[in-house]
Each structure stands twice: as C-alpha cells, then as structure tokens.
C-alpha cells in the first residue's frame, strides 16, 4: 500500500557551483517542481561524489554546465515523495515512499531517436527510452543533480533499491557501480576466465574487484598508489593485488601461464583487462597482461586518448572497446546482484553542508567513495 503523501516544505538546502574552480556554496532554494508526466519528486537521502564532478567543476567539460548556478551529482538515492498529477501521466511502477537509486543518465530522453527506438541490443531498454539518447539531459551535468535535499528524477531512468542495500551504498553504485558492472559484462567472459582491473583501489575499481570475484572470474587488481593499494588489499576479495611500481607484468604473465599449464608465451595472460586510470602507463601495463586475442575495455577518457601499438592489434589480435554506464535494465540487474552478493563500497560519509570538505578529502586520493549522507544533518 502506498504511504500517505508527505507534507513538503517550500524551501530546501542545496549546494551550488557558482563558477568554475570555486568551492560549492550552500543556500536555501525552492523545491524543484514536476514538469513532465514521467517526473517523480525524490527526497534525496544520499548523494555520491564522482570524478566527473571534479572534472566538471574545473571547467573541463564545456559546454557543461550550460549555466550557473549549477547543482552537481549524478549518482544519488532517495525516497519518492510526490508523483505527477498530469491527467496523461503514464502508470508508473513507483509510489510514494519507494526507495530508489538515481543515475545520471538519462533524464527526459526524446523517445524517438535511433537510440530510443533501438530495442535490438541485449541490454536495450523498452521502446522509447535509452541512456544513450543524444537529446536527453544528465543529472549533475546538463541538468541539476543530487547535492540538494529534493530532486526530480525520470521514472524511466531509476531503479528500486533492493532490501538490504542502504541509500548511501546505493548512491555510490549509481555511476561507479553501474559503470564497472557494465564494463565487466563488456569483457564477455565466462566463469573461470581471467580479468584484470587497472586502478583497482579507486571508486570504480574497488567495486569492480568485488563484482568480478562474485561473477566467478579469476581477478587481478593493479594500482600504483599506497592508499588505494591498501584499500584493495583490505577488501580481501580473493583477487590478487599487484603494485604496478614493483610487479613486472611479463613476470606476472609467466606466473599465470604456469598456473594455467600453458607453454606458449602467446597463450599466457589475462582474457580481458579494464582500464580505469587516465594514464598511458596503466593502459600499457594492462595490454601487457593480456594473452593473444585478449580484450581491453577502456572506461577512462584522458584528453589525448590512449596509444596502442599496431603490434598488439595486428600480431596479438588485442581488441579495444569502450564502455559507458549501462542501460536501466543493467542498472536494475546490477543493484540486485550487489544486494545478493553483498557488494559494498568503502565509503566516507559527509553531511550536505560539508561538501567542500568531502571534495578536499577526495583529492587526497585515498581511494573508495565519498558520499553525502543526508542523515548526518549537522543543523546548518
Ligand atoms: Zn560518474
Ligand atoms: Zn532519443
């Protein structure tokens, strides 16, 4: 049964970005209003910080945000507090009181472009909705995001939170979780095959180690920074953690080959690697861990891209592919998987008023995820 409609305040607190390269400013503002039959008003319970928020605030994602002031955050979670009252509102599966996770993509897709009508891919969403729609907006980037007490979400883009997952844990999965989960699926591996995760102690990486092991893969994690390495080791997932500063990839490949009983150099190594850091060194390290015909899935997007040798492409038949978030179908699957297998982010929580402190802590590079928890209300 639906909960009664809560009485809502007129105003709410929100963290605004007023200019590039400036701290966020906490102010009171009006609650956002429902403008589409697909909209739901959400009381935000947790809002997670992503690397993309840092990139956007630095002015490196122009033309976004299209205007100031801007409200960041494209991975958050909350509770439905208001439904559309339009006569033509589609029957939404959501009701007042439902706990939902909100990803950045895609808010108000056009419903008619080639992406929105493509239902032929294995992870496609129903007709009329696509996370790839070029006309859709994205929370925290081209539309306001979750660093505020109330937000609007598109009922087609969100996912119910399974029992056993908290809002804080869910928020951290709405970009980082879905991105690494979709990248692991993009590797196209069977249980027992080998995958490497470059940047394994970061926000995506430490979730990836857990997802990959629970998918039944043999996992190697690689990092080159003390804090993230310690975080990855402490997870104790059963994945082998390498320190790229000291572990030689050729030696690792030989060890794996021996373990697998292989005698040919070309058949020794990993079946796939996922590249999370923006560094060529990490990319090269990953490609060097692959056996012939291995697949390299790129998730990061450094300004100058990556270089791969023709030798790797032509003589070793290494394939390179990219991966972006995931469809709503994959998002729901990921959340269910996370709840079932107890995938848990290593999370530092902050109240909304301390978002700038959160950002400072994030830049210290300790790894894991940094999340605004609205329950930590400090009365400001
Ligand atoms: Zn993100
Ligand atoms: Zn579209």
UniProtKB/TrEMBL annotation:
A Pfam family per the record? ADH_zinc_N
Q: Which cofactor does it need?
A: Zn(2+)
A cellular-component GO term for this protein: cytoplasm
Query: Could you tell me one molecular function GO term of this UniProt entry?
Result: alcohol dehydrogenase (NAD+) activity
Enoyl reductase (ER) domain residues: 21-372
Q: Which UniProt keywords apply?
A: Metal-binding, NAD, Oxidoreductase, Zinc
Q: Which domain of life is it from?
A: Eukaryota
Gene3D superfamilies from the UniProt entry: Medium-chain alcohol dehydrogenases, catalytic domain (3.90.180.10), NAD(P)-binding Rossmann-like Domain (3.40.50.720)
Q: Which residues form the signal peptide?
A: none
Looking up SMART domains in the UniProt record yields: PKS_ER (SM00829)
Family membership, please give it: Belongs to the zinc-containing alcohol dehydrogenase family.
What is this protein identified as?
Answer: GroES-like protein
Q: Which organism is it from?
A: Glonium stellatum
